Amino acid sequence: MKTAAIRIRLTFWYFAMFATAACLLSIASWWMLQRSVDATEYHDLQERAEDVQLLLLNEDPNRSIDELRQDFTQIYSIKDDGKWLQVADQDGRWIYRSRRMIAENPELPRPEQLPKMGVIAEFHQGTRYVRILAYPIQVRDKKYSVQTGIALNKSMALLKSFGADLLLLTPAMILFASLGGHWMSRKALRPVALLAAEARCINDRNLDRRLPVPQTQDEISDLSNTLNQMLERIDKAFASVRAFTGNASHELRTPITLLRTEIEVALIRPRDGEEYRATLSHLHHETVLMTRLVENLLSIARADAGAERVNLQPIDLNDLFHRMDRDWIDSMHLAGLDFRTEIGNEQHQALGDPSTLPRLLSILLENARKYTPAGGSVVLSAVNESAGIRIAVQDTGVGISQKDLPRIFDRFFRGEQAGIAESSGSGLGLALGKWIAERHGTELVVASSPGCGSSFSFTLLRATPAPLKRASLPYLLEDEEEIQA
Ligand code: ADP
């Protein structure tokens, strides 16, 4: 629809421009022709007046007016039947009047009343259209008025036929140009129409399809490339949403199947209270893991949708470490691990989000517990550095292979750590941890080698009374007010 409208508009503009140009050109050429015809006629008339002047100059100055009349009659009546000519001296006495002039009897002003260039007048005489020029001449010390005329029929016919030709040609040219404009706009917009038709065929099931890119290196190929890049991004986003949904369903199916099987087995026959207690306790453990998985899934989905927000504010790391110690010490001991928190004596006030920062530490501590065999140790530490406060979770566990290292932050990625029986993870913990660290303006970095343990660390900004510099933390601007408060 849009293409048609643009095409019609282009045709219309082309028509309007061409019609205006053609009309202006026609009017200008007609006007120029008329001017040059007028100038030629004027020069003819002027030359004839000057002929009279020459004649008078050759006359004897002592000749009387009657003798002059005789001379003029003799010359002009033979020459060209006098045509349109009358000559009078400065006292208004006629020297010569042709028959045609007498018949029309136009007024001939005295020479001193005439301007230098003369005066032009026109009249019809029979079938002729006549232009006359009253022109002042001077011969020795005497002045004369000469009025000479010429039939304009030839030049009028010329102008008329030229005008008629223009009237015929101009609309034909405009029509031709409009058709040309229409054809050109169709041709110019054809690739756009083709692109639109191709784009209409692309839907959520064939997002891998791409639009054709013409080899012309023009706006159309630029548009095709831009649309293709956009399709690429949409395709990737769709693929990642699909993968996330698929992985999430898969992750949920396993524990649910486990729960179902366990309940079905328990219901096969009546059992004593102890057996039911054991089954229920196992079911409880499974549901706790499931709850954690669903929480992680929700957090990632909310983070993708932009709904999960962090609210940075000063946090006392001593308090936070104390809480972590209290929450994790039992489970670490149960796993046969030595767990310590190390924090200097100085005040550790860092900028952090009170709800997501503990979660990040829990993710790292849980991994350390899971991937460290009994007898090992886990240390949560905070060290003051020039860039801020570096927080690290270090274990003496199985470590991560070089092959797995680049992938551990990918969603649903799980490494195959030898010797670790418990595989309660879903591969979402570090993905979420990475996102939380990024929202704190830092990066979660890992240093690990197989058999030597791992260390995950990130750096938090120190909470100082001075306002945050915008340039240093651009993506935290929305939280800035709360930070300063
Ligand atoms: P999971 O729930 O499987 O632990 P994570 O995203 O937290 O998922 O971790 C991804 C993978 O990174 C783990 O499967 C494991 O292979 C590796 N990993 C994470 N933390 C550690 C660690 N402290 N020691 C060894 N391997 C780890």
Quick description:
The protein has 485 residues and is of the alpha+beta class. The protein is 53% helix and 16% strand.
Radius of gyration: 53 Å
Percentage of residues in DSSP E strands: 15-25%
Count of separate structural domains: 3
Query: What is the fold-level CATH name, i.e. the topology of the largest domain?
Result: Beta-Lactamase
Globular, elongated, flat, extended or rod-shaped: what is the shape?
A: rod-shaped
Largest sheet geometry: 5 strands, antiparallel
Subcellular location: Membrane
Transmembrane segments: 12-33
Domain HAMP: 186-239
Domain Histidine kinase: 247-464
Textual characterization of the structure:
This protein is of the alpha+beta class. It folds into three domains: 6-159, Beta-Lactamase (2-Layer Sandwich); 219-305, Signal transduction histidine kinase, dimerisation/phosphotransfer (DHp) domain (Helix Hairpins, Orthogonal Bundle); 313-460, Heat Shock Protein 90 (2-Layer Sandwich). It contains ten helices and twelve strands. It has a five-stranded antiparallel β-sheet. A five-stranded mixed β-sheet has the order 7-9-10-12-11, covered by helices on one side. α5 (219-267) runs antiparallel to α6 and α8 packs antiparallel against α9 (429-439). The longest helix is centred in the N-terminal third of the chain and has 57 residues, at 2-58. The radius of gyration is 53 Å and the shape is rod-shaped. The model is unreliable at 466-485 (pLDDT under 50). The structure holds adenosine-5'-diphosphate. Adenosine-5'-diphosphate binds next to α8 and α9.
